[in-house]
Design a protein that fits this description.
Length: about 140
């Protein structure tokens, strides 16, 4: 097991309800814990990197925003180029186009990790706490 921590800048502080939901999330994606730094308006996740790359975790969280969704796929494309993985590279080119065109319309498969090893149309379960945060980003 390789534990990694990733930190996200929040656009606004989390509400009590969002924090309560976040505390209920399961280990579906290898997310082990989270920490909120209210003074810096940041949310940090610890996850098992042997199960998922940082970009896959970011993808699940970033699907609520077209900009973030495209940015994550761009990072995945860069990773595929560095790793010399032509199939993943091609998959990310298509996913960048899809993210740019379909995210705002809500036509993304929630929970999908965004890698070329998963169908671009396959939905995966989203832990309840993360689902609540994603929903609040979409509504706000």
């Amino acid at each position: 097991m390789t534990l990694v921590e990733i930190t996200y800048e929040l656009q606004s502080p989390l509400t009590e309800e969002q924090l309560r939901h976040l505390g209920q999330f399961a280990n579906t994606y290898g997310l082990r814990s989270f920490r909120v730094d209210e003074s810096k308006n940041q949310l940090s996740f610890e996850y098992d990197a042997s199960r998922l790359r940082e970009t896959q975790v970011a993808h699940v969280l970033g699907q609520a925003s077209t900009r973030e969704h495209v940015r994550v796929h761009w990072q995945m494309l860069r990773w595929a180029a560095r790793q010399r993985q032509p199939q993943e590279l091609a998959a990310q080119v298509l996913r960048i186009i899809g993210a740019a065109v379909l995210t705002a319309a809500g036509l993304v498969p929630e929970g999908n990790t965004g890698g070329g090893n998963v169908s671009a149309f396959r939905r995966l379960p989203v832990p309840p706490g993360l689902a609540a945060i994603i929903a609040s980003v979409r509504s706000g």
